[in-house]
Amino acid sequence: MTDTEPLLQVRNLETQFHTDEGIVRAVDGVSFDVYPGETVCIVGESGSGKTVTIESITRILQMPPGEIVGGEVIFDGIDLTTASEKEIRRIRGDRISHVFQNPQGSLNPVYTVGAQIREAIQANRDVGKKAAREQAIELLDEVGIPEAGARIDDYPHEFSGGMRQRVVIAIALAGEPDLLLADEPTTALDVTIEAQIIDLLLRLQEERDMAIVFVTHDLGVVAEIADRVVVMYASKVMEQGHVHEIFDRPAHPYTRALLDCLPGPDGVTPIEGTLPNPLDHPDGCRFAARCEYAIEPCFVGEHPSLLPADGDEDHLVSCLLYRDGHDESVIDREPRRADPFAVGDDT
Ligand SMILES: Nc1ncnc2c1ncn2[C@@H]1O[C@H](COP(=O)(O)OP(=O)(O)OP(=O)(O)O)[C@@H](O)[C@H]1O
Ligand code: SF4
Ligand SMILES: [Mg+2]
After folding, report:
1. What's the first-to-final CA gap in the chain, in angstroms?
2. Is position 25 within any domain?
3. End-of-domain residue from the set 146, 176, 206
4. Counting beta carbons within 10 angstroms of the beta carbon of residue 234, is it exposed (0 to 12), middle (13 to 18) or buried (19 or more)?
């Protein structure tokens, strides 16, 4: 994976909201890469900054109140944070597409699905109405809408939720993007339909050699689809690495706590406590107040920077316990509650 150049490089991205209460630091120095054809999953609790990260990439974020105040988003050599409106409009839809959580909100109820797919095709390619209609039928067929030729003139309300999400995916594919940004695209769907949509995305990805950034808080989905995982908490990346590293050798106490939340024989164990207020992040490690392993230095200074876990450049972790010269006995000591480290105890 790392032999090729990244398709997307997010570097120290900082996005804020100006509110009456003050400045919300929603994304605070986030960095990760996406390579061609791979699936990167962004996971983290509600409010950790996943959506704002995704919406900052193509600047679809509402600005104001949002503002990208720092960092770079390099796509194909262009920094999207400073690209002109014309440049970014060309890239959106054509090179990078979005699929959102709620298909209802992504479709216009007063136009037929065919008209909406055609519009997306014609926005990206110089084709006439008739050819665009034929391509729209092909796309509907490709995303698994039965009798696509007959359904193309239906309105969104005539489709079920799962079928509407397929239509949204067809629209997202119309420009033949290199990168699909999917923000919880299956959360509003029931489990069976969710599985079908995920299968569909994986099939399309393989056929089209398309990279996907998939935002979810469902670790079961992550295990199924991710090549690499970015774990976010309180507007920062806590850990990132290959999916097997994250599941088999999770380094960060937050990742371990998240994995602990997976339903097991004793039910789901939620992580105690809540995320810090993004209006006023605490000093030190952002996870310290909830961390089983916190030591005194965790509560002062800056949040720990991302560094290789155990010397592995592809597996990064932001935790003081992994600093050079750390006290090994601290990592190895028993946590205050049940042992989340058991997840990775096969080394
Ligand atoms: N328009 C806005 N104005 C002020 N704060 C905002 C705005 N949009 C998002 N935020 C804040 O930014 C932070 C990150 O939000 P974001 O929507 O990215 O979280 P998320 O990880 O996607 O959560 P979820 O899993 O619930 O979708 C949150 O604290 C949120 O309240
Ligand atoms: S830096 Fe300290 S508080 Fe933060 S995750 Fe590591 S051990 Fe826990
Ligand atoms: Mg979100």
Report:
1. 24
2. no
3. 176
4. buried
> Is there a single domain that holds both residue 171 and residue 251?
no
**Looking at the domain assignment, is residue 182 inside a domain?**
no
Å from CA of 213 to ligand 1 middle: 18
**Ligand 1 mean position to 227 CA, how many Å?**
25
Q: What is the pLDDT of residue 3?
A: 60
pLDDT in tens, 35-90: 999 999 999 999 999 999 999 999 999 999 999 999 999 999 999 999 999 999 99
Of ligand 1's listed atoms, the one at least distance from the Cα of 215 is 22
User: Do 253 and 336 sit in the same domain of this protein?
Assistant: yes
Which of 176, 192, 227 terminates a domain? The answer is 176
The number of domains in the chain is 2
pLDDT band, very low/low/confident/very high, at 332 (cuts 50, 70, 90): low
Q: State the pLDDT confidence band at 326, using cuts at 50, 70 and 90.
A: low
Residue 251 falls inside a structural domain: yes
pLDDT over 80 (residue 329): no
Report which secondary-structure segment, H or E, holds 236: strand 236-242
Q: Is the CB of 25 under 6 A from ligand 1?
A: no
Residues 178-189: b if buried by 16+ CB within 10 A, e if exposed: bbbbbbbbbebb
Judgement on whether residues 251 and 334 belong to the same structural domain of the protein: yes
- Asked, for residue 248, whether it belongs to a domain, the answer is yes
In this structure, which residues have their CB less than 5 angstroms from ion ligand 3? 50-51
Q: In this structure, are 336 and 248 located in the same domain?
A: yes
> How far lies 110's CA from each of 107, 115, 286, in Å?
9, 10, 46
Q: Which of the residue ranges 66-75, 81-90, 157-166, 187-196 would you say has the lowest mean pLDDT?
A: 187-196
Model confidence at 101: pLDDT above 50? yes
Domain span holding position 339: 244-344
